[in-house]
Write a structure and sequence with these properties.
Elements: H1 3-14, E1 20-23, H2 27-32, H3 38-58, E2 63-67, H4 72-80, H5 85-91, H6 95-98, H7 104-126, E3 132-135, H8 158-171
Parallel strand pairs: 1-2, 2-3
Helix pairs in contact: 1-3, 3-7
């Protein structure tokens, strides 16, 4: 999903007055942005703020953990070193980062967009200190190839989800 989709999901979830929610969104957004991404970044920031306001409005006591976007440039390096390029080419997964024809300069620009998106998550999360925590360490985990799906060499597998869960739990509300 992209952040605009999660705005709709948050509205649906809000009907159930949740006590706790975890938000991990942004990788698909960053993959779709252009190098000149300021307008897209502003829309993303607006979406994140709307998601959080919607959830908080449904239950003023809700606790929300906003996870940083995992380190996609590191993930790309890991996959490239382990023969994932053909899968990425076939599946057309995040061509802005994983495309075989990407230059080092384009990958560097992608890394800048990824960092900008994580800065937005941190900044917007800080606007709601009673309800929202930002799990920033998720941006820096050292994934291993055993954490990545063999199907697409991009998304976390069960082991990778466990790894991310442990990291977010350690920064969450109930640790």
């Amino acid at each position: 999903s992209k952040s605009v989709d999660v705005v709709k999901q948050a509205a649906h979830l809000a009907k159930f007055n949740p006590d706790y929610a975890t938000v991990l969104i942004g990788a698909n957004d960053v993959c779709a942005w252009s190098n000149d991404h300021e307008a897209q970044l502003a829309d993303y920031e607006s979406d994140i703020r709307t998601i959080l306001r919607t959830l908080i409005a449904s239950n003023e006591g809700i606790k929300v953990l906003v996870s940083a976007i995992p380190n996609m440039p590191l993930l790309r390096d890991l996959g490239a070193a382990n023969g994932c390029q053909s899968r990425w080419n076939t599946l057309h997964i995040c061509p802005a980062l994983l495309g075989a024809d990407r230059t080092d300069s384009e990958r560097s620009a992608f890394a800048d967009r990824w960092q900008d998106a994580n800065q937005v998550l941190a900044r917007v999360s800080s606007e709601f200190p009673l309800n929202v925590k930002f799990a920033g360490s998720v941006a820096e985990p050292v994934f291993e190839i055993g954490h990545i799906s063999r199907l697409d060499c991009f998304h976390p597998n069960v082991s990778g989800q466990d790894f991310l869960s442990e990291m977010t739990w350690a920064e969450g509300w109930y640790y």
